[in-house]
Fold this protein.
Amino acid sequence: MKSSPPAVPPPRPAKHRVFVVDDHHLMRRSIVDAITRDPRLTVCGQAEDAPAALAAIAVLLPDLVVTDIELKDSSGLDLIKILRAQTPALPIVAASMFELTRISHLARQAGATEFIAKQHGPKRLVSLLHEVLQSQPTTVAPPAPLG
């Protein structure tokens, strides 16, 4: 009687790496906690303003960025524009406390892939992150050099 080779489970796919930008510590912590609870996502970094985010994102190369629209001492819209210019394929989800059509339009105009109002809560945010990631190519090119 011939024995079968032991069944090898398929390799687990790597977790998608998410970078979070929000100037409010408690809100950022809430977003990070929601992402961390999902077995298919991990937070690779976080920042409270655009300059810190740009520096970290260039090194960490996340699969997706979640950013608040209004940041202390910087603009989330400007951050989105810069990221879109540096890394055109990088998915960016813009978030705001306000669910105004105007803010959503401004975020998309700046280059955001999607927009979510924060009051939709963590479950909807995580669901949206998966939707965005599934609609993207499997690899994100590194940022283009500035200048």
Remarks:
- The beta strands are 16-21, 41-47, 64-68, 70-71, 74-75, 92-96, 114-117.
- Residues 121-134 form the longest helix (14 residues).
- Residues 35 and 81 are 24 Å apart (CA to CA).
- Helices lie at 25-37, 50-60, 76-86, 101-110, 121-134.
